[in-house]
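[09:14] KT: can someone run the structure on this one? pasting the chain below
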Amino acid sequence: AALRDAWRLLQEGRYGHALRCAEKAKPDQAGAGMLALAGWRAAHALRDAERTAEWATRVRQHDGDGLLAARLMTEAEFALEERRFDDARAALQQLATRQGRHIAALRLSLRAEQGLGNWREVARLVRQLEKHQALTAEQAAPIRSRAVREALRSLRDDSSGLMRYWRELDDADRAEATLALETARALMAAGDCREAQRVIEDALDERWDAALVLAYGECGRAGEPAGDVLGRIAQAEKWLQRMPSDGALLLTLGRLCRQQQLWGKARSYLEAALAIAPSRATHVELAQLLDQLEESALAIRHYRAAAVL
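[09:31] RB: done, structure tokens below
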């Protein structure tokens, strides 16, 4: 009766009453372990640290009675509530060693790894939970996307490690424009424009994206290795045959031609970009080119136009 009432009261949120029921049990009685578990949960809900520790000790005494998994799951749950992510991970790892991980444990592991910032493990756990239908595609996508972005950021200073991780990702992840852009920019920051070029080209083959197109022209700034600029110009001109009115592509071609000191082509592409989609960035790019060509009066007009936009 005490066992039944303790768990009923616990579910009703009447934690003090549940605790009093749990206190009726003697350690050697049948059901004492389950009553101790109810007492532990009730004390924790009441934020009574002393009694929580006392009941946790009582529950541990019943590990051999089949309550080990329940105790470890409860420890992990409480640790997560208190943002003790290392303790939660330790409990879940012990559980995995003893009994494997079921879906509820995977969910707790996901929260622990998110709290610890272990984003590569977060991405792996999300895939597992989605595979077991414990997360819908809509629920999984933003978590996985953030996890992959954070993992990529952590590898910004290691271009070879970054590319290894990128190649390990699913095709769907590599085709996601935001992830491809994050990876390409990280590679550029690491000075590896050739790999950045490949990442962007592969992603654009799957899905056209203006931000990726603009990033295609970002390598080769002052002090940065330019990579295969001529190869990028050739590829961008192939794209232009299919999309002759794409303002972002024309701006990128203007930037690439300027990097390669193809002044006439750069000017032509930038002027075409302005005719299709006037933007501050295009005006500034053209103004800087005109400064190089010593056409200062016309450059000033474009600087002014940029300031207005």
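[09:33] KT: thanks! The longest helix spans residues 137-154.
[09:34] RB: yep, looked fine to me
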